[in-house]
User: Fold this.
Amino acid sequence: MKFRGLYLILLVITGLYFTSCNSSGGKEEKISTDLVKNPNTAGGDKNSGTLPAFKFEEIDHDFGKVIQGESVSYEFKFSNTGKSDLIIVDVSTSCGCTVPSFPRTPIRPGETGAIKVSFNSAGKFGFQAKNILVVANTQPNTTLLRIKAQVTGPNSDK
Assistant:
């Protein structure tokens, strides 16, 4: 009788595991795998002539002096200078105080877009430098953006 109860609990846990890991909430947009091109092969051959490519107006931004507790934002503007649709897969930051937002739809060749980065200086003081890592279907597949600020106290001259 003990084994039957244990078996039932194990069966319920297994069922919950498989159903919870498969839930996307129906909000994810599906992107065709035809848009993702990887020129790297096992043989080492590369054909990057048809890939999308980032061209950022700038990859570093200095907010200058920021009063502690203030939130500031900046948009890293870019264009797709490649020959196929550019897809930004992920944008991550080196700190929870820096929050990115980016286009979730493909950027066609010649089109422009922006990655907005917001920095919250609450609890920070002194020189702050944060990295933003952009992962896309480009070659190389990562691009590093940077922001910096000098966080001063509320009674300091700006």
Remarks:
- The beta strands are 54-56, 60-67, 71-80, 88-93, 98-101, 112-120, 126-136, 142-152.
